[in-house]
Specification:
about 300 residues; outer membrane lipoprotein receptor (LolB), chain A; 4 helices; single chain; alpha+beta; globular; two-stranded antiparallel ribbon
Length: about 300
């Protein structure tokens, strides 16, 4: 059913001796458990290391464009939505101002806009013709970024929440702070493994020397997959680095067989060598817009 949904969407001895033997066996078992635990911890650290490496590369760019496409399934209804975001900051840290601008659409109709102009975060609800504003500039540099992105996360729907979480993990602190988006089985898709098919969406992840994938999967009545795509980029000094270039998140809930639900989320990330002008991130309320009480600038 979920694959059909995606197809439509994309169309998408003695006592002493015994005691010694038992003690030896127990020690070996404990040792084996510790080895396995250590191996698990190492595996966990490797995926975190790989993703944080991709995050760190992105931090070296002054700007990035994010494009989100999402399909929500509820029963037999599929609702498409999109979100486009532009991010800008000073990677040298000399200027603490951060900028963000985004447009959000559902079923082809624009429903909201967000903007961070270096001092204030705005969220505009087009249907209600209301906006809120939140001052994030009067804090230390990393705290202001974190504050703004947490506010974005708090007011966003699912599309914006994933984008905000990603931006927060990359830029919200002084170093990348990835934490797993999904527990369960972990697979690295490289040229050694060959292509791997997404367990939920049937999407084929095809690696190359300049592209690999980190796949997380959980199964059960509620199945979920999260995939981080890494690609190599060439810096101005001709060195190559790994960067996170796309994230795929899928979920399918069949706890109620009469009303299946789920979603498919895709976000592409494009680093940009030159940041847009600060003026492009300004939010100018239209005539007649109502500011949410207590939050207006």
């Amino acid at each position: 059913m979920f694959a059909l949904f995606l197809t439509r969407a994309w169309a998408l001895g003695n006592d002493a001796q015994i005691a010694v033997v038992i003690g030896t066996v127990v020690r070996k078992i404990i040792g084996l458990i510790l080895v396995l635990m250590s191996a698990g911890a190492m595996a966990q650290s490797v995926d975190v290391e790989k993703i944080n490496e991709g995050y760190q590369t992105l931090r070296s760019y002054p700007s990035a464009n994010l494009h989100v496409e999402m399909f929500d399934l509820y029963g037999e209804k599929i609702t498409p939505s999109t979100m486009d975001l532009s991010w800008a900051w000073d990677p040298t840290g000399q200027d603490k101002a951060v900028y963000l601008k985004g447009d959000e659409s559902v079923a082809g109709e624009e429903v909201g806009q967000i903007s961070a102009d270096g001092a204030t975060f705005f969220s505009y609800n087009i249907h209600d013709r209301t906006f809120l504003a939140h001052d994030y500039a009067n804090t230390p540099a990393s705290s202001s970024r974190l504050d703004m992105l947490q506010r974005m996360y708090a007011i966003s729907g699912r599309r914006g929440c994933y984008a905000a979480r990603f931006l927060e993990e990359v830029f919200g602190n002084d170093n990348p702070t990835y934490s797993p988006w999904c527990s369960g089985e972990l697979t690295y898709v490289t040229t050694e493994t060959g292509p791997v098919q997404d367990p939920l969406t049937d999407k084929l992840y095809s690696p190359s020397p300049a592209q690999d994938f980190i796949v997380y999967e959980t199964t059960g009545p509620i199945s979920r997959s999260v995939v981080f795509q890494r690609s190599q980029v060439t810096a101005t000094d001709s060195t190559t680095h790994w960067v996170i270039s796309a994230i795929y998140v899928s979920k399918y809930d069949e706890t109620n067989p009469n009303l299946p639900n789920g979603f498919m989320f895709t976000m592409t990330i494009d680093p940009v060598d030159t940041a847009p002008n600060a003026e492009e991130f300004e939010f100018v309320p239209q005539s007649g817009l109502e500011a949410i009480p207590g939050l207006a600038r």
